[in-house]
Amino acid sequence: MHDGLREVVKHFHLEGTLKEINPLAQGHINDTYIVTSKAKGRIVRHVLQRINHEVFKNPPAMMDNIVRITEHIRNKLQTKQPELASRQLNVIRSGDGSGYWTDPEGNYWRIYDFVEGAITYDTMDSPELAGEAARMFGWFQQMLDDLPGPVLHESIPDFHNTPLRFKQFQEVLDEDPCDRAKDAGREIGFLLENADICNVLMDLVKKGDLPYRIAHNDSKINNVMFDERTHQGVCVIDLDTVMPCLSGYDFGDLVRTAASSAEEDEPDVSKVNLNIPIFTALAKGFAKETGRFLTPIEKEYLTFAAKSITFEQFIRFLTDYLGGDVYYKIHRPNHNLDRSRTQMKLVQSMIEHEAVMNEIVQKAFEQAGRQ
Ligand code: GN1
Ligand code: MG
Q1: Which of 40, 307, 334, 348 is the most buried if burial means most Cβ atoms within 10 Å?
Q2: How large is the average pLDDT for residues 120-131?
Q3: What is the residue with the minimal CA distance to atom 7 of ligand 1?
Q4: Measured between alpha carbons, how far apart are the two ends of the chain, in Å?
Q5: Helix (H, G, I), strand (E, B), or coil: what is residue 182?
Q6: To 10 degrees, the CA torsion angle through 334, 338, 343, 347?
Q7: Are the C-beta atoms of residues 301 and 248 closer than 8 Å to each other?
Q8: Which string of b and e fits 45-76 if b means at least 16 CB within 10 Å?
Q9: What tens digit of pLDDT does each residue of 230-279 get?
Q10: Span 121-131, mean pLDDT?
Q11: Could you tell me the pLDDT band of residue 1, with boundaries at 50, 70 and 90?
């Protein structure tokens, strides 16, 4: 075990004796480890993370958000669902009482309780589980609807500002610093031809037609935990980007990751398609929790939000590929290009199925309204 990591853990209020710390290969941004200790004769696990402060420029503000969010959710569940309350993310305090510790090199660290007896999935082929995942992200928005106090910090400003993502893409394309544009001709062409997708939702926001709500903003299928026995949703994890944004993006990012028939980095794009039965289950699950508070126009644009967030992700992966893989961790050459290709294929599949998807969403909300 890395001595430096042992040193980090010492700065947090953890019970028992530290046994081991092992890396967990998960996520494209932060570094994650599992900390195992022994307390009162039992093995206890925690999740240790080094926050990527190149991406999250203000970790104290972000941790302030996360502490507020997790406490709010736990407090609301405490009386009626204490067992569920105890399985929500819990930030372990450091020596100074905050939710993080800064090492002498300026790295920010945090520790969460490990949620035991729960699992995540990177892809989804069960409509039941997909429906439950969507219900959980809807539930999460609903739980935070009454968060008191000041507006949450913007942990990454302009995170889902798709027009800006497009502009950043154009800048990298113009410069082509790694001479890679020649290897991504089809992708660049598709992006430029479909660039009008980028402005639609932001224009509705500007006109005051689409509201901002506290949303998760990184609602990938592997950010929801299911009980390993009952398969019910337990909690939503990875709260780094929880901040006001469009509700539809949470539905959309879940569609992007759960209703895709292949992994985000599948090199063979012929395997990537939109899975309609999974999409249907997602719409029903999301409608169950959000039907009561979403406005008609929010509901109307849910399918578009799925296409838009997938297009945004396509832009982001392609921008990072052209720019020399500076943002997302890569594990092989062309990893970001492969990722961008799956997203492009998904957008194409969504364009093809748009009318059907709209119908499915509309029916899901009608049905939720009757229940
Ligand atoms: C990043 O690291 P991870 O998997 O939580 C990214 C998301 C992307 C996602 C693509 C802060 O999330 O926005 O959708 O990769 N997070 C950040 O898989 O940029
Ligand atoms: Mg994340």
Answers
A1: 307
A2: 97
A3: 218
A4: 53
A5: helix
A6: 110
A7: yes
A8: ebbbbbbbeebbeebeebbbbbbbbbebbbeb
A9: 999 999 999 999 999 999 999 999 999 999 999 999 999 999 999 999 99
A10: 97
A11: low
pTM listed for this prediction: 0.96
Rounded distance from Cα 264 to ligand 2 centre (Å): 14
pLDDT at 42: 96
| CA 245 to each of CA 153, 254, 308: distance values in angstroms, whole numbers, following the listed order | 12, 15, 14
Confirm or reject: Cβ of 31 under 6 Å from ligand 1: no
CATH topology of domain 127-370: Aminoglycoside 3'-phosphotransferase; Chain: A, domain 2 (3.90.1200)
- CATH code for the structural domain at 3-116: 3.30.200.20
Residue 77 has a CB neighbour count (10 Å cut-off) of: 18
Q: How confident is the model at residue 337 (pLDDT cuts 50, 70, 90)?
A: very high
Task: Tell me the CA–centroid distance for residue 368 and ligand 1, in Å.
Answer: 30
Q: Report how far ligand 1's centroid is from the alpha carbon of 336 (Å).
A: 13
- Mean pLDDT, rounded, for 29-51: 97
Domain-wise residue ranges, the chain: 3-116, 127-370
Q: How far is CA 244 from CA 125, 208, 217, in A?
A: 30, 15, 9
pLDDT computed for residue 28 by the predictor: 92
Residue pointed to by tokens 């309350």: 85
Q: Locate tokens 């106090």: which residue?
A: 149
Q: Is 218 within 8 Å of 253 (Cβ atoms)?
A: yes
